[in-house]
Amino acid sequence: MTTTKYLLAKYIPDLQRFEPRNVGIIVWSPLGIEARFLAEYPDRLGEVDGRSIPGFVTSASAYRQWIRYWRDAIAGSSIRSLVGGNVVSPSFPGFIETLQQTARGNFAVVDAGSVLDEISEEELPALAEQLFAQLIEANTAEEPRNIGFDKLCDSLMIQAQLKHHRNFHDRYPVSCSFRGVDEEFFFSHAIANGTLERAYQRFPIPKQKSQLQKNRDATAWMLERLLNANVITSDRTVLLVDATPDQLSQAEVDKSIRLLGSMSRVVNILNETEALAEFGAAAQLPAH
DSSP string spanning 15-84? Predict the structure, then answer.
């Protein structure tokens, strides 16, 4: 009997709370592999529709990279194990474990179970659709991602020549130790080359109060840990927001910005003059 297994691709918005969200399904059989991922174009596998990325995903660019990575791994003739360096074929059962070993930061693949019934190669697509509908799509009712924020932020950075800086990084990792436990966090952008000269964290203002509170608490946790570990300084750390005048008048938004502003500088990208001044100054930092 041919055993068909399935794995869940997960995204973990907050590594401290560790509340993973399902973003994809991978169905494995010696006969073939089928996969479905949130926001992926059905007719252009590996490509992501930015407008459909769930709101709980904090980095659209990282999400795109991981969907492409998983697709390439599934479609390739082999994948190299991170433990031992062995090359494993997708048709070999060890492929499942090897794929799980690729987990990094906010992204992971976990073994979710097996299908007891005999599944033919022709039935794999339908099974993937069924599992995707049951385990993924049903659990994604959340505020859509603010694509306008990402586009405006990218546009302003390009206009200020910030992205051309030799030491500019997207999704920059920083680590610290808390009570003997090593933790890794990611900034949206950074100017760094050994020394962290500038760290930027995107913080789009969601419409839902509960989502705002969750995002604020996760960001505050990260900033507090890194400040206490002397990994960052508040004057070199910048929170990027997109708060409208109406939002700024709301108590919860004001509270969030004041709290996070006590640990970093805050730049409202809707004030383009202010944003361009900040990005332009960072673009002039010496390249080491």
Answer: TTTT--EEEEEEEEETTEEEEEETTB-TTSTT-B-GGGSBTT-S-HHHHHHHHHHHHHHHHSS-EE-SSS
Rounded Cα–Cα distance for residues 1 and 285 (Å): 63
Q: 181 pLDDT band (50/70/90 cuts)? A: low
pTM over 0.70: no
| CA 89/CA 94 separation, integer angstroms | 8
pLDDT score of 56 more than 90: no
Q: Which two tokens stand for residue 170?
A: 């997207």
Greatest pairwise CA separation for the chain in angstroms: 66
What mean pLDDT comes out for the span 106-126?
87
Asked if 219 and 241 touch (Cβ cutoff 8 Å), the reply is no
The larger pLDDT score, comparing residue 186 to residue 15, is at 186
Instruction: Using DSSP, state whether 229 is helix, strand or coil.
Output: coil
Within 10 angstroms of residue 254's Cβ, the number of other Cβ atoms is: 13
